[in-house]
Amino acid sequence: MDQFPLALPVMSAQTGFDLQRVEVLKGPQGTLFGNNATGGAINFVANTPTPTLEGGATFSYGRFNTIEANGFISGPITDTLGGRIAVKAVNGDPWQKSYTRDDRNGRADTIAGRMILEFEPSSDFKASLNLNGWRDQSEPQAPQRIAFVPQNDVSGAPAIAPFTYADGPVPFPQATYPNAPHNARAADWSTDYRPRQDNRMLQGLFRMDYDFSGITVTSLTGYTDLKFDNTTEGGGTALRDLDLRSDSGHIKSFTQEVRIANDSHNALRWVVGANYERTKVNEVTWLAYADTSNTYVNGFVSHAYETRQKMTNYAAFGNLEFDVNDQITLKAGIRQTRAKRDAYAFNGDLPQFPILPTDTTFGGTPGGTLTDFFNAVYGSLGPLYGGPGYQIPTIAPGGSIILDTRGLVLGDPSANDPVDPDTFLTATTVNTRIRENSTSWMVGADFKPVDGLLLYANVSKGYKAGSFPHLLGSLFDSYAPVKQESIMAYEAGFKAQLMDRLLTINGAAFYYDYKNKQTRAKFVDPLFGALDKLLNVPKSTIKGAELEVTARPMQGLSLSASVTYLDAKVDKYLGAVGQTAVSGVLVPVNASFKGVDLPFSPKWQYSLRADYTFPVSSALDGFVGAGLNGQSSSVSALVVPGSATFGATSDLYDIKAYTLVNANLGIRSSDGKWTASVWGKNIFNTYYWSNATQAYDTFVRYTGRPAEYGITVGMNF
């Protein structure tokens, strides 16, 4: 945001309002934007205070009674101080419909605001303060159930004492639950734990620029405080299948950057600086799953897991650009980063999340706790791992069930010690850390052979820091971090402005060579089985090309088109596709993923847009526009085509190709004081989805929104 880093993606959730522009920089951008910019960087540039008093507002009303209001006021406060205040609010009725009962979900309720003060007492010094925040109390989207994929055998009686049912085995409700119809609005969610959220963020950004003798010193100081409290539907049914009854936490992030740059008009331009970031993330999740095959077999119905992480980054960077002559510019940059991550993890029964009276098993028997279950199971594991007569210590109520007290620190020799019953069978919390260093760099050249044509080539190295998972593992291996990801990127392209800038053509070809790419995949926990977590793919590559064309063939008419081609493949990865029981614990069944597609990497992405503005009278202009965007098919996870992954066939992970069409029509005053328009989004009501994933016993999709239409009016002064 205005060159200030946002430590986590959730921080940008409601920042897209009252913007001057959005800068999209293809990756990697590690030299100037840090060690987590392997995929590029997006910079939201907010509108700043204006030299004269200005204001404006827009109001939209659309389908589902959605009302959106935007407003701003901007101008000088004194001769040296200017200010701008902007707000945005959205409120709307639910857009999802239950397909098994009369119920609705998906209400919109957000508000965001931003105040910017700019102080410029002289031509040499300028300071700005950006105070912004938002609150989101909308109802999170519920997924669509598309398949039943049981993770435990439910054909017989429950297996683990003392969790037996008073009336014996009963029908398993998931087996007969209907799948959702192919309708964007159709979904289902738990009636006990309805989707809800109450998330809020407050942020302060302070910038100072001081110029002296052709040098500019810039200081960027930022602090962000975000709290979240959500209830989220996981399994796409009205059952208690995989529901985040509560997912709450607190994120605090502080950043400080100081950089020095010379005048941008010099033939040799340079920037040097240093950056510090410290972020704390605390998260507690209360998971409910009384209607899953796990409860049918094992009897426990819910539990909680908690993580606390501290992330600290130190970096120093520099960048050079040199104009050899009017045609050739050489570029180079480097950034040295040290990243520290400290983590604590708990998995068990927390006293603030008790077993509720409604948490019963299928036969009506009160559900058991995770602690009770593990104490019962550990009795049989003791002789298996510790020898005849070995007694495992009992886990006290409220204790963590995570096994193994060997070290978790990367490089700690004890992490590779043989399993010892005295440590392996001792429940504990996880306390661990990682320390990583990286050197990002970039070299490139620009060549302008003629006016209006730029040719360029860049080679760069970038990194993405390692991290710890937030999940419900039973063994220290489940909490092992992913290592830092690295990318070697090669790109060459051109930018051409032709016919007196009436025609613009940009094109590029690129090759990305990844090492240890962080990708969500399956991990087999010895007791819980298949879990989703970030894992490292040792080697993968992305080859691609893109082309953008913008034309203005006549007065008032603007045409644009873009297309991107990607060939994103795994070159080396041995990963889990199933699990089997060995000596009382689950172990993975592995397969090679060489040659499979990387997730969310469609081979083709494209867009077309046409806009036409025409005079209606001396005081009125009309405008009409239409556009489409789409993509070819892709996959949502690492899967081997034609095979099954933990009982789910590979086609369940498919994201089908789709094309969306939008259009608008309106009038506005020639002086820009007011505007009115009607619009439509996804006007052909295309059914599509952006993600597909396994939610324990069910497989679900997250659909795109259906056709929407509305009217917008705006005014400025």
What does this structure look like?
It is a single chain. The protein starts with 18 loop residues before the first strand and ends with a strand. It has one domain (9-716): Beta Barrel (Maltoporin, Chain A), CATH 2.40.170. The chain has five helices and 39 strands. The chain has a 22-stranded antiparallel β-barrel. A three-stranded mixed beta sheet has the order 7-6-11, with no helix packed on it. The chain has a three-stranded antiparallel beta sheet with strand order 10-38-37, with no helix packed on it. It is 5% helix and 56% strand. By secondary structure, the protein is mostly beta strands. Residues 157-168 have low confidence and may be disordered.
